[in-house]
Amino acid sequence: MDIASHIDHTLLKATATRQEIARLCEEARQFRFAAVCVPPVYVKMAHELLAGSGVATATVIGFPFGYSAATTKLAEAKQAVMDGADELDMVICLAALKSGDWDALKEEISLITDYLHGQKKVLKLIIESGILTEQEIIRCCQLYRQYEVQYLKTSTGYAAQGASVEAVRLMRANLPAHIRIKASGGIRTFDFAQKLLAAGADRLGCSSSVKIMAEANGAERTMDLHTS
């Protein structure tokens, strides 16, 4: 399995340094990950370091709690695109969701997708599945399938529970095929990464990407020994 092509190599801690972002981008080039996901302040730097590599530059919007005003998220998105972001991972307004204010969620997603329409950028919506009920996850799928969204993403990595196989399966069962799934939060082993992909995830947000690749390569060598 070419697991590297499914990984968004991620560093989103508040204290991330330029040196750490440079190393992240170098590792992404080396392993040919799908993307790096970096704080907004480092988008321009990552975009420049990854030029010509085939690795996309992703960043976060309304991160990690999602309760920024929709117009603030729009301003963040515009700045990220101006700085060279290819992919935007936006946290939905979880406060609105938990209040049952689905009209506010519709207004928010309409504002963002109207801006991104035709720009060939990838939008990943973070629904924070670990703090949602099954019915809330299903309703998110029903809402966002109506918009120009490329991915629904399980988690920020900041909630008590991150990605789960069960959430990915539930999302896959309730989304059309053209909307893919990104699992993130707590993905630290090759075994768990494989299970999430098997459940229907297409991308994996990982800060343990290099460790996962080492485990994947070890598993590959073991398989080769058994079949030779």
Structural features, described:
The structure is a single chain. With 228 residues, the chain is of the alpha/beta class. The protein has one domain (3-227): TIM Barrel. Helix content is 46%, strand content 16%. The protein has an eight-stranded parallel beta barrel with strand order 1-2-3-4-5-6-7-8, surrounded by five helices. Helix 3 (70-83) packs parallel to helix 5. The mean pLDDT is 95.
Compile the SSE list and pairings.
Layout: E1 7-10, H1 18-31, E2 35-38, H2 43-49, E3 56-61, H3 70-83, E4 87-91, H4 94-98, H5 102-116, E5 122-126, H6 134-144, E6 151-153, H7 165-173, E7 180-184, H8 190-199, E8 203-206, H9 209-227
Parallel strand pairs: 1-2, 1-8, 2-3, 3-4, 4-5, 5-6, 6-7, 7-8
Helix pairs in contact: 3-5
